[in-house]
């Protein structure tokens, strides 16, 4: 590894410790530079500002999960023309297990996003995922109704609150530093609870 690249990686490790300890708002590039034995200006030659340091630590993992989440939503729409809508719950659970393993493969990045991101573009990460889910799910069930598959309409406010509760519960695994195996067991129990609730609420027949 070349010296410049090694310095960049070293700075990222120090920045991660600073952000985890103080959060984004409380973190100081000056402290990171001092610990690295560099001037603040030298740090800015590698990363133009504090936001760039944070993004370098979390963007790939956080944006990657968002893109995978969008792909999972599309997969549910793929069930419609093949008359496999009844497999939707199993598909959701399969994706959930994939997501939780992905999150744990990038645990520190998601710890930063969930606990230390106030003041960054990731401050409302869970909310943004919830908004995606609510919007796409409405389209999904509207399409089912157009095809003659009965399901009860649920108000957007109710849908948003339930989805927010579900996503928050899943990400609590990271917030509370739960081990991977315990997290997998926990999210599957949470999913079973919410799936039964949705089926009862929507009255899918």
Question: What can you see in these coordinates?
Answer:
- The protein has nine helices and no strands.
- 18% of the residues are buried.
- The chain folds into two domains: 48 residues, Orthogonal Bundle (Arc Repressor Mutant, subunit A), CATH 1.10.10; 146 residues.
- The chain has 205 residues and is mostly helical.
- The mean pLDDT is 91.
What is the C-alpha radius of gyration, as a whole number of Å?
Answer: 20 Å
General shape: elongated
Uncertain stretches: none
Q: List the total number of helices.
A: 9
SSE-based structural type: mainly alpha
| Mean model confidence by pLDDT | 91
Estimate what percentage of residues fall within beta strands.
Answer: under 5%
Oligomer: single chain
Summarize the helix and strand pattern as letters.
HHHHHHHHH
Number of domains: 2
Outline the biggest β-sheet: none
Number of strands: 0
Helix coverage percent? over 70%
Through-space gap between termini: 59 Å
Which SSEs are present, and which pair or pack?
Blueprint: H1 3-26, H2 29-36, H3 40-46, H4 50-79, H5 88-105, H6 107-115, H7 125-146, H8 156-175, H9 180-202
Helix pairs in contact: 1-2, 1-4, 1-6, 4-5, 4-6, 4-7, 5-6, 5-9, 7-8, 8-9
